[in-house]
Amino acid sequence: ADKKLVVGFSQIGSESGWRAAETKTAKAEADKRGIDLKISDAQQKQENQIKAVRSFVAQGVDAIFIAPVVATGWDSVLKEAKEAKIPVVLLDRQIETKDPSLYMTAVTSDTVHEGRVAGEWLAKQTGGKCAVVELQGTVGSSPAINRKKGFDEIVAKNPGMKIIRTQSGDFTRAKGKEVMESFIKAENGGKGICAVYAHNDDMAVGAIQAIKEAGLKPGKDILVVSIDGVPDIFKAMSEGEANATVELTPNMAGPAYDALIAFKKDGKAPPKWIQTESALFTPDTAKAEYERRKDAY
Amino acid sequence: MTGALQRFLPLIVTTAVLVVGFLLCAAQFPNFASWRVVGNLLTDNAFLGITAVGMTFVILSGGIDLSVGAVIGFTTVLLAVLIEQGGWHPVPAFAVALIAAGGFGAAMGGVIHVFQMPPFIVTLAGMFIARGLGFVLTTDSVPINHPLYGELNDMALRFDFGLKLSLPALLMLGVVLAAVVLAHWTRFGANLYALGGNRQSAELMGVPVARTTVAVYGLSGLLAGLAGIVFSLYTGAGYSLAATGVELDTITAVVIGGTQLTGGYGYVVGTFVGVLIQGLIQTYITFDGTLSSWWTKIAIGVLLFVFILLQKGLLVVWAGRGGEPAEA
Amino acid sequence: MTASTAPPSAPLLAIRGLSKAFLGVQALDGVDFTLRHGEIHALLGENGAGKSTLIKTLTGVYQRDGGTVALEGREIAPRGVEEAQRLHIGTVYQEVNLLPNLSVAENLFLGRQPMRWGLVDRGAMRRRARAVLQPYGLSIDVTAPLGRFSVATQQIIAIARAVDMSAKVLILDEPTASLDAQEVAVLFKVMRTLRSRGIGIVFVTHFLDQVYEVCDSITVLRNGRLVGERRTAELPRLDLVAMMLGRELEAAAHRIDLGPAEVDSRPPLASFKGFGKARSVEPFDLDIRPGEVVALAGLLGSGRTETVRLVFGMDRADRGEATVDGRTIRLKGPRDAVRLGFGFCPEDRKKEGIVGELSVRENIILALQARQGWLKPIPRRRQEEIADRFIRLLDIRTPDAERPIQLLSGGNQQKALLARWLATEPRLLILDEPTRGIDVGAHAEIIRLIERLCADGMALLVVSSELEEIVAYSRRVVVLRDRRHVAELRGGEVSVERIVAAIASETPHAIASETPATGSGAEVRQ
Amino acid sequence: MTLSAPGPSRNLPQYGALIAVLLANWLLFPDFFAIRLQDGRLFGSLIDVLNRGAPVALLAIGMTMVIATRGVDLSVGAVMAISGAIAATMTGAGWSLPAVLAASLAAGLLCGLWNGLLVAVLRIQPIIATLILMVAGRGIAQLVTEGQIVTFTSPALAFIGSGSFLTVPMPVVLTIVALAVTALLVRATALGLMIEAVGVNRLSSAGAGVNTPVVLVAVYVWCGLCAAVAGLIVTADIRGADANNAGLWLELDAILAVVVGGTSLLGGRFGLVLSVVGALIIQAMNTGILLSGFKPEFNLIVKAGVLLVVLLLQSPTLTLFLPRPKGARPIGTVKPPVAPTSGGAKP
Ligand SMILES: Nc1ncnc2c1ncn2[C@@H]1O[C@H](COP(=O)(O)OP(=O)(O)OP(=O)(O)O)[C@@H](O)[C@H]1O
Ligand SMILES: Nc1ncnc2c1ncn2[C@@H]1O[C@H](COP(=O)(O)OP(=O)(O)OP(=O)(O)O)[C@@H](O)[C@H]1O
Ligand SMILES: [Mg+2]
Ligand SMILES: [Mg+2]
């Protein structure tokens, strides 16, 4: 009989609902396949992730999954894993390295692309004319940088589109709401704002509340577009308060397990990048999507 | 020498706690008691240890330095920008980073002394500034690809019995040794303890308060800069959000190591042991591998509490009622 | 008494027109002071007269507002203690200002450690520390933290440090406040030796006997102003007191009428049986009756302080029992004692007595308020009344009751502490060295106050190193030696000679040779 | 004893700084002082400052007294998360508002009790004692919410966050009430005096008969309660408990507010109103940064710069001409020796 596969998963933390869902799914998918999953929570710190990978190597696991908190800084620890012949899979974020052989594959979406999808939807919706306020993620974090980059590409293509204000909402509801409140005041009671683009759904939910409290109608007076696809944004969409979200699936581990099992079985190396879909959702399907998701989270 | 025994008691107790903790872990996990784990413990906590040495000096002098984590982050970014975007050789970049970090610390010390502002606040502002400067340089994480980095990373002292001491680990051990000498065999060290014992008395005894204050924050900044270099070696990158929250980790290590936050009492070696205890807690949790994010946090808190209780308990048992250090 | 070296032309230290003001207080107002080579010069004045301020301004702790200071004819203006030390001025400031966390040797050589190969030579430092302490008969473990030793030992160490540093001028601000007679004698011997080497010594004290014993000249300050300078030999005691107070002092404290003997037959207010604590004080019996003063006499470290701390519950007794009003009580802490109507002025007022940043008013009402509990605040008006009453009664020198107590001079802080307990109208007041650092005028007042309180039925338990003082007011003296109560003198038996005899019986007294006790914060005497 | 530090001149730097920051905001954004009524609720940037400043102001009220005893409470952010998590989860499970509020406040109280016992009885240094709950507390909050943002729809609970009373937003009302109750509690009783006495010199206070352990525990309990209220507000405001982020790093803001308000970290004299002013200065600064349209990369530097200026204004060195005892070097900066010296082994 086969020995149970042991996988060490260095998770970033649980800084958002999406992240917690990713962990939860990873566990569920491991159970389905009879894999023994060891999760180490890095509390948002890269140094903790590196420590975790080192200690996975010391423990002699069969594979290591990393959801890297930053793109850089993995070379030396991954080298150790490679020397110990332990395959590494990256989940939901890519890393920057000169030596791609350091990891087996990466299961991620393209965060720049997500920004593009959101931007394209907005451009289409408004005929390329829109004064956008942007709620950025945590300054310096890679999704914030990339989602801004992708969106900016579309803005650059549409002369009628303009980002009139941009500030960091730290990926949280509370900050999203606070920042949106000031945006509304700064832009003539919100009259100058055509849409809000939030780097994640949580900030969008906060922004929706701020818009309502200012006496405006979210989804109508000010369009709301965001990224992630957590249940709450589908709920808001079904109530007509949000307009679009780009999904980032929390099931990153599933494809990774499959690739790993295949690799262990007949040594078939998976493609270097297993890209997950960045699907756009709009209010028409919101209700059903909400029902489908609310338990996965 | 019962007097000496009593003086070093907190240190002995802390070390005993570390050893007991390690043995317990080893009993639970078969792979734990290996040289690899020991080596990892030293390497992974090198930057923390180096920073904590500086923090020990600051706390001994009766102050506190909240800026260290941010200075580490800033240093990594500065190095990355100089080396990758400026095309510098790493060695002059290291020098510049050390000077910048040390100067930054000294400036905070100057503000603290001249304006008689609480160190907590001045260094908190310093933390904002250092992080902010990092953001201004670049918000991206920048990989450092200079070949020297690879060479430095491969450098290690290997022992026949299996222990491997990486460059960061060696650096930390060196810093700890130098710090012990500085604390106990120089006038500067004596002045630090004096300042922390009682600032007014120290002044009345002729301790150069201004110079010492500036120097100790300068030193803390310098060591944070060195830790930044180590961190950039460790990750091979510069990132403005690197090492967030490290200030609290270092303060915890210093205090677990038996140094009084009110200043004047404590040992550098104790801090070193404190860092290892924290590293041990981390390693234990990773080895366990079943803890969710929240249980991890709870476990860290509980273990911290247990270590502190153990320490207090051992002190009381071994020293009787008089051994408990005063606390304010 | 004349100096043995010929006085050079310029005086050693010439201070002219020195002024220093603090907010609301002109602490020094154009003071002149001259110190000659090979002279011991007393600097005298009431509490708050400005003595300590003069010293601190002279040595650069405070920056002067005006005036000049010349050392051997050359103008100096040190900007800090470090600089003063470099000019060979060694100072012991009022209250011990050493560092409890450093070892004795480190305290002695802080800033001037012997170096070898660029590093501190700890061995040499230890050896030299022992040598420096040797003239004082102090053979202690110089590597032990200073905080382990008693206030007295710390004081001697501070003196030794200053003496070792002062090649020209030695300044001592109330160095004898916590020393006993033998230690004072040793100190004086050292001072005379230094004088014979041409060193000038400034000596601040409230003990007039000591002034007449060692000093060549006297400078008197009052309210920050110079009253005058005299040769000791030419100034009779009464004139000196008049110079200090600005008025005649009523006849010095006399032996008071001890009242009717029936006091002894009254039931005791508090009684302790076999009371004691391991590694602290041997079990003792002690009865205290209303209206009587019980004094505890003994050498430094004989266990007096520890006895009264047990009685007040500051330390917890681990054996014996205590009864108050015939009922057995358990003293779990000072709060219990306060509720029973006890009060306690501790020996170390800076650390255990005053609450430095709070005002004089708040310090005075603190114990009363604590006894009433936090739910029943004393109205502000009433607080002010109480504070003002005691400020007048005890003549506490402060511009107003709202001044933070830490800004008062040492003696006035002591009076405010006394006021704190008097305000609670205690039934038993415990005073540990109550007259330490208090000037002659206040000294007499405090003794009179003690008499009056007893007449009103208050019981007092007093620790004092001044035997004359004890004899003056107490009718029962418990003598301690080596942490044991060895004798009790009553009524007619109470006299300085008898006390000394009781202290000295059996083991001959050896001057301070302390070693830190193992395993306890206290210390044993050998 | 004092609600604010005595003497108007001492408070000048704080009020001056607040006005200066508000004026700077007005220069950046001319409509800053414009206020109108929106759905029966005051609406405007100035109201935002008050409203958004409320949680930190609440924390600062509790923190002030902890700091006055020479302590510090790093766990307030975590306590906020716990109280919010409990409120949202219980509301979601259908409990009534009074039960929810009682449970949340009780959680805050328990947290405070735990901190207080560690500090007063086990004598662990406050920064470390409360660090334990800072780390573990957030874990407990996440345990309650299982790492998710637990949302609720109950308008009753939401009212605490975004409702209004006589047009004044509820968070502001709650802060004013908390301030008034706290001020009453310390000023109309002798608690304030005892807190200050314990903070300045614990040994002396104990010797004078002050029940120091009870004072210490009380102060941490009150701080826990204030944090629980703050947690309720932020949870009610976003109609969801974000255990991961609620109150994150707010302990630093609260400490900052207290210090900006002029209370010394070395304990002793404290000013409650001034701490609230400190919180408002910080929030006015944050709001100003949001309104200004600076790039977010500059937020921290701007914040640090303004802070340093505000604190410099209070520096004893620069305010020597103002009658404040701190000015008298070096006595004012003394801390009593804490050595295990003679008599020091016992409290
Ligand atoms: N740092 C200070 N700030 C404000 N006032 C001070 C300060 N130091 C001393 N004073 C005041 O200056 C005056 C002189 O005090 P000083 O300590 O010189 O008296 P002293 O003669 O040494 O008295 P004592 O015999 O009690 O020690 C007192 O009124 C005191 O309150
Ligand atoms: N509980 C205690 N813990 C630590 N040190 C103590 C304690 N009680 C007293 N001491 C210190 O130990 C020294 C010796 O105390 P003891 O009571 O034996 O002396 P004493 O007779 O009162 O003489 P002194 O004049 O030095 O106070 C004192 O100076 C005191 O400061
Ligand atoms: Mg004096
Ligand atoms: Mg005594």
From TrEMBL, chain B:
Keywords: Cell membrane, Membrane, Transmembrane, Transmembrane helix. InterPro entries: ABC_transp_permease. GO terms for cellular component: plasma membrane. It is a multi-pass membrane protein. The keyword Iron does not apply. The chain crosses the membrane at residues 7-29, 49-82, 94-115, 121-144, 165-185, 214-234, 265-287, 299-320. CDD domains: TM_PBP1_transp_AraH_like. It is found in: Cell membrane. Signal peptide: none annotated. It comes from the Bacteria. GO terms for molecular function: transmembrane transporter activity. It holds the Pfam family BPD_transp_2. NCBIfam families: PRK11618.1. This is Sugar ABC transporter permease YjfF. It comes from Azospirillum lipoferum. The lineage of its organism: Bacteria, Pseudomonadati, Pseudomonadota, Alphaproteobacteria, Rhodospirillales. The gene is yjfF.
UniProtKB/TrEMBL annotation, chain C:
The keyword ATP-binding applies. Keywords: ATP-binding, Cell membrane, Membrane, Nucleotide-binding, Repeat, Sugar transport, Translocase, Transport. This is Sugar ABC transporter ATP-binding protein. Pfam families: ABC_tran. The keyword Nucleotide-binding applies. It comes from Azospirillum lipoferum. GO terms for cellular component: plasma membrane. InterPro entries: AAA+_ATPase, ABC_carbohydrate_import_ATPase, ABC_transporter-like_ATP-bd, ABC_transporter-like_CS, P-loop_NTPase, YtfR-like. One of its GO terms (molecular function) is ATP hydrolysis activity. It is a peripheral membrane protein. Its main location: membrane. Residues 13-248, 253-507 form the ABC transporter domain. It is found in: Cell membrane. PROSITE patterns: ABC_TRANSPORTER_1 (PS00211), ABC_TRANSPORTER_2 (PS50893).
UniProtKB/TrEMBL annotation, chain D:
Coiled coil: none annotated. Keywords: Cell membrane, Membrane, Transmembrane, Transmembrane helix. It is a multi-pass membrane protein. Pfam families: BPD_transp_2. GO terms for molecular function: transmembrane transporter activity. One of its GO terms (cellular component) is plasma membrane. The chain crosses the membrane at residues 12-29, 49-67, 101-122, 214-234, 246-266, 273-294, 300-322. InterPro entries: ABC_transp_permease (IPR001851). It is found in: Cell membrane. PANTHER family: ABC TRANSPORTER PERMEASE PROTEIN YPHD-RELATED-RELATED, GALACTOFURANOSE TRANSPORTER PERMEASE PROTEIN YTFT. This is ABC transporter permease. It comes from Azospirillum lipoferum.
